[in-house]
Amino acid sequence: MPCFKQMGILAKQCYATSQRSPYFSPTKQLLNRKRMKQDNILVTGAAGQLGSVLVEALQEIYGTSRVLATDIKPIENHEGPFHILDACDGAALEAVVRQWRITQIYHLAAILSAKGEQDPFKAWQLNMTSWLNVLEVARQRHVAKVYYPSSIAVFGYAAAPKNTPQYEVLIPETAYGISKVAGENWAYYYHRRYGLDVRSLRYPGIISHQSMPGGGTTDYAVDIYHHAVQRKPYECFLRADTPLPMLYIPDAIRATLELMEAPAQRLSVRTSYNLAGMTFTPAEVAANIQKYLPDFQVTYKPDYRQAIADSWPQSIDDSFARRDWGWQPQYDLDAMTRDMIAHLEKKYALA
Ligand SMILES: NC(=O)c1ccc[n+]([C@@H]2O[C@H](COP(=O)([O-])OP(=O)(O)OC[C@H]3O[C@@H](n4cnc5c(N)ncnc54)[C@H](O)[C@@H]3O)[C@@H](O)[C@H]2O)c1
Predict the structure, then answer these.
(1) Tens of pLDDT, residues 14-39
(2) Residue 138: which domain range?
(3) In this structure, which of 58, 141, 201, 315 has its CB flanked by the most CB atoms within 10 Å?
(4) What domain count does the chain have?
């Protein structure tokens, strides 16, 4: 197991290499240090925007056969073990954890912010039932580590909008946000009461080229690139001047893996770590795309998601993550735009 300092050096080396080849996975070098570990990994919600990319990264580290991807729907072009599993079905979850001798769980299954507002009760039920099932089975079957993705949606109007601190008032405006605040507190409770090693990040909006987002308020920042590359105009559902914190998927995956690899004694936050990458408005991302695709046109037609975005922070103070486990984002808006366009141009040329 690399020591904490080595992990930081390793991450920097990975980044340097990733700049040379667009296909280099920053997790590959972690693999060489860790391959001897015999963990069995369960991922719930593995067919989603994050899960489909995280599963591949985990497969590189632990080996394809040791990562069990699960979801209520199949994953496109998936290689490796996969089960249909409803994370709300506690008995089915327990059977999988037992049969596969699972040692780590990444619980990604959820209903996200915008979709959650269409059926708030369902969002609460699914997000809480599945998470409590995961915590209970992890406790009962002595699972070594559990990962829980939280969100900037835990913050609402009561929170400082700029450089929002780690320990801030949490009064969210959405059912999704309420479920994440409760989820973070359950993570803390299981850690304190039962010693369960639960680790968590408050992701900002995640932007990826590999998979489409599943109903969040920041989904526009993925859609906009797909439209631009296909030479189609884009109608944005947020106002042009709405700043939101965002993170490019390689940074999101690396943050997740680095947090999960950090020595437990370094982790001072057992609810969920603030995590920052970049902040931009729809107008700023549109202008950045136009640097490379000058004919790209964007119009703005704010809908119900504007109110959700307005209640969220504009930027995040992630100093606890930087201090405790060496977090450093590596992509800014321009680096992300170049990478997104390059990957999506390949994708649509092949289609
Ligand atoms: N994508 C983002 O911008 C973002 C930001 C903050 C936090 N997060 C969190 O990260 C996690 C993953 O998000 P994502 O963007 O991949 O979401 P997504 O909507 O793309 O994927 C969620 C997956 O969960 C699956 N699912 C739904 N109900 C299920 C159930 N009962 N049992 C098993 N699977 C079920 C869905 O089929 C889907 O594949 C979520 O917990 C989300 O709250 C995401």
Answers:
(1) 333 333 233 334 455 555 555 546 89
(2) 4-350
(3) 58
(4) 1
Cα distances (Å, whole numbers) of residue 272 to 149, 209, 277, 288, 350: 8, 26, 16, 32, 40
Q: Report yes or no on whether pTM surpasses 0.85.
A: yes
Ligand 1 interacting residues, C-beta cut-off 6 A: 44-45, 47-51, 71-73, 86-88, 108-110, 112, 126, 130, 149, 151, 203, 205-206, 213-216, 218
Tell me if residue 308 falls in helix, strand or coil: helix
Taking every pair of Cα atoms in the chain, the longest distance, rounded to a whole number of angstroms, is 57
Ligand 1: residue of 43, 44, 49 to mutate (most ligand atoms within 8 A of CB) is 49
The pLDDT assigned to 38 comes to 87
Strand order in the sheet with 205-207: 205-207, 244-248, 278-280
Tabulate helix, strand, coil % of the chain (nearest 5): 50, 15, 40
Tokens linked to 38 = 């015999």
Indicate the burial class of 299 (C-beta count within 10 angstroms; 0-12, 13-18, 19 or more): exposed
What CATH number corresponds to the domain at position 81? 3.40.50.720
Amino acid at 248: Y
